[in-house]
Amino acid sequence: AQKVTQAQTEISVVEKEDVTLDCVYETRDTTYYLFWYKQPPSGELVFLIRRNSFDEQNEISGRYSWNFQKSTSSFNFTITASQVVDSAVYFCALSDLNQAGTALIFGKGTTLSVSS
Amino acid sequence: SQTIHQWPATLVQPVGSPLSLECTVEGTSNPNLYWYRQAAGRGLQLLFYSVGIGQISSEVPQNLSASRPQDRQFILSSKKLLLSDSGFYLCAWSDGNRYGYTFGSGTRLTVV
Prior knowledge:
The structure holds two protein chains of two kinds.
Chain A: E1 3-5, E2 10-14, E3 19-21, E4 24-26, E5 32-39, E6 46-52, E7 59-61, E8 64-69, E9 74-79, E10 88-96, E11 105-106, E12 110-115
Parallel strand pairs in A: 2-12
Antiparallel strand pairs in A: 1-4, 3-9, 5-6, 5-10, 7-8, 8-9, 10-11, 10-12
Chain B: E1 3-7, E2 10-13, E3 19-26, E4 32-38, E5 44-52, E6 55-58, E7 65-70, E8 73-78, E9 87-94, E10 101-103, E11 107-111
Parallel strand pairs in B: 2-11
Antiparallel strand pairs in B: 1-3, 3-8, 4-5, 4-9, 5-6, 7-8, 9-10, 9-11
């Protein structure tokens, strides 16, 4: 069965610190997609990144970077030089062919608090 | 461009009252539609999904039901709300190829 685990429930850092959010997934499919979403206090889900299972290249977008390792079934997210505006709940999610309706399966989220 | 509308934004309902949350998508046809619920301090749980008009699949047995009367309309309902139905409800759509999932702005439901 598909499963996404975000073991870190809450993380607190001080501005300018680097922080890594962990994500471990389980799937029997060989073709799958991984996502990260940000949920600010207002509640809406903001799409951050989509990665398919055949692309293991790490990606960097400004202060954000993602490390995808199929060998360990992990898709970790690092924020460099964190800012107060990064405070939010971050969700990792998985979509594979075994999930009927191709629905996204989410982890339980990691609440990131960045203080000034 | 495609847009998704979800309403109302907030709702306070007494226990035992009915519920109807509506979600509509514009700018696309035959989308896959989803309802998720986020209980306080918890993750996003898939409640229902639909791959076509009248086709509804339930992921979690509960007090809620869903309907898709039109191609781009998805409704979440309950005949009698329970306290445990409180939460943040999100509607989403995708085109089925898993390229992207777009979420509505959510409805915060409080059952009192």
